[in-house]
């Protein structure tokens, strides 16, 4: 069932199960198909003696002309097939492919024999069933819109029997009973249906069975009881469909093309994110073929699988096997060679080997530009990949230019809800996020998510990526609770669909760790970072940049907890990896220099801190736009060192440069602005200009109270700083009040050994002595 504001919209699973059906109807099944299904079912129902007896009977006696008899028998066939079609369980759908085909073909044959008996007149059938309350809400939203049944649909001509089914379902607390009244026009060109009385297991039932993918118009809905648990819903069989979904279906059908049904099935499995099943299928097909071109195709597809599973070294091995065959059998400018170069480049990019990636991408682009029309989708893929490398290399304007070229081609060639368009919007959003243009980034990422939600199954890995990207933007904007919500959605999908050591899981754990760190919940942050670190260690040596990220993140938490030597050790490990794998002016190196500078600053080693901060600034000035937030961080950090060295005018100059950038690029309540106001206040306080200091400190506190949890360490910093100003202004009672608020937060948020707790306690002690002196 499906509905949105567009009444003619159906859910993406309708399209994918329809494509699975088309392919499975086209496949030639061998003699072992029945035995293989029986073996699979024995595993599912092991320990269930009655079902096992029925399965043995099926394996021994099944014939295609008995398909409906077996389908209507209350046993494993009906349960497994419809559940698999509802949940789009590719594994079971494929195992039951021959049975699905036989049931469909028998319905079709009966329909052709019976259609004239209806005399062209509409008639009613009934169905009683229970719906989960969440599904019932979707049905209510679909009123006047379309509703689909992706599975085979059993209906009855007996109204009372169907009403009894609905009534029984309504007695369950989590269900709503639905009594469907369905108007059927036999003249419509729609899904085949047939009276199965003569071929059913239950001959006494007057059942009309519809094949898969019936589409109805939801006409009316009314409550039938006082408890809000039983509803009558009137449906009308229709030949209408979701026009947008139809054009996307046509496109994906074309993309899942192949010489055989099995090849098409493999491509569709990849499209739907069923990588393990695709791998299993391609390995079988590879073993069965002796044709070199087919081998190259299967190696290439296995490369896709390994790439998506995050096993980059195996992906390259498969892609190179495909390339080797293509180089022997094809001319040097054949598009298939370009595909191989492109795929190898894609893996090197993910491994952080950007110059290698670029070299392969350029080989691919050179062939495609010579052999393809200028708006061919493969050119879009090439531009997209080059954009990705430039993005990773920190060359954001080049990246944006290539991503926009790719988008332009896709917009000309693809339906407006094609997942590949979403990928382009997502990539453009990533660049805008890196450039600090957060509103543009959010807009692009939301366009991507909207398309993915329309076009993909609800647990597809690309949806997880989309949630993750939106979380990143909210995190960049300082909206931590929103970021956490999106990161958790991404993690939920990844935990369901990916192997436990997949790099994307590490990315999810890292991102959740970062949010907790920014919210001051350090033990939670460390727990998530360590989960990511565990995965990243296993990924070496195929993905060193991920390990560097993990070292860096764990360093961040130790730094925030005041464990500076531990932080320094992790930051230096991260830097060492980056220096080996990245170009010398990569922005990620600047991040490492900046982090090391930050630790030295906290340890009071100001000349070392300044040296690292200046290295970071030099890289950022070369690679980023002049108002990029990372430059502001750099100016801010250098300002902090000068402040600690007592060079207040220099400090003020750098702090004001930082503030100017943040005011231009961030929301007015962004935590970075609070940091900026706080730092400028600190300089004025050290210069003895207490009223100016107080004004800036209060601006910082206002933002922090608005945006941070009540026990965030940055709030404690604000209270502490305001306390110092009041102490210097001799207003001791106000000073004490602010110091005590600061201490309360720090004791709740930080480990008891954290140096800043000791510092606040000392400040309170000194203040109390001062108050005693004055009262004496």
The biggest beta sheet is recorded as: 5 strands, mixed
Radius of gyration, taken over Cα atoms and rounded to an integer in Å: 32 Å
Helix content: 55-70%
How many helical elements? Answer: 35
The CATH homologous superfamily of the domain at 117-242 is called Toxin ADP-ribosyltransferase, Chain A, domain 1
CATH-derived architecture of the domain at 117-242: Alpha-Beta Complex
Count of extended strands? 8
Q: Provide the residue-averaged pLDDT.
A: 87
**Measured distance between first and last alpha carbons:** 80 Å
CATH topology of the domain at 117-242, by name, is: Toxin ADP-ribosyltransferase, Chain A, domain 1
For the record, the CATH class of the domain at 117-242 is Alpha Beta
Gross morphology is: globular
Based on secondary structure, the structural category is alpha+beta
- Low-confidence runs of at least 5 consecutive residues: 1-7
Percentage of residues in strands: 5-15%
Side-by-side strand order of the widest sheet = 1-4-8-7-2
